[in-house]
Amino acid sequence: MSGLSRYSDPQTSKDAATLLQSRSTDSELVYEFIVRQGSHGATDNEIQIATGLPANSQPTRRNQLVRMGLVRATVRRRATVSGRQAIVWVASFSEELFA
Predict the structure, then answer these.
(1) DSSP letter (8 states) at residue 39
(2) What residues does each domain of the chain span?
(3) Which among 30, 34, 55, 89 counts the fewest CB atoms within 10 Å?
(4) 48-99 pLDDT, tens per residue?
(5) Could you tell me the pTM of the whole model?
(6) Residues 6 or more apart from 13 whose CB is under 8 A from it?
(7) Three-class SS state of 16
């Protein structure tokens, strides 16, 4: 039994609970990485490389943090590995100028 499901729950409920726990953990990974970057911040690409999260799920985790008020976009941009300019994200408590 996980904290989000009961032993008597159907397997689909247990699977959903596992997925929610995974998403929470992924969000924590993203947040902890951004916090460690301080005012330097991080692009989505940098977050993906550091956390190992795929490009199709990491931005969703970061957006959750933005909606929670924990992460903000800065006015700065930095080149990704492909050469494109990307938004630099910082923890909201950072003394940064926000976009």
Answers:
(1) G
(2) 11-91
(3) 55
(4) 999 999 999 999 999 999 998 889 999 999 999 899 999 999 999 754 444 4
(5) 0.71
(6) 5
(7) helix
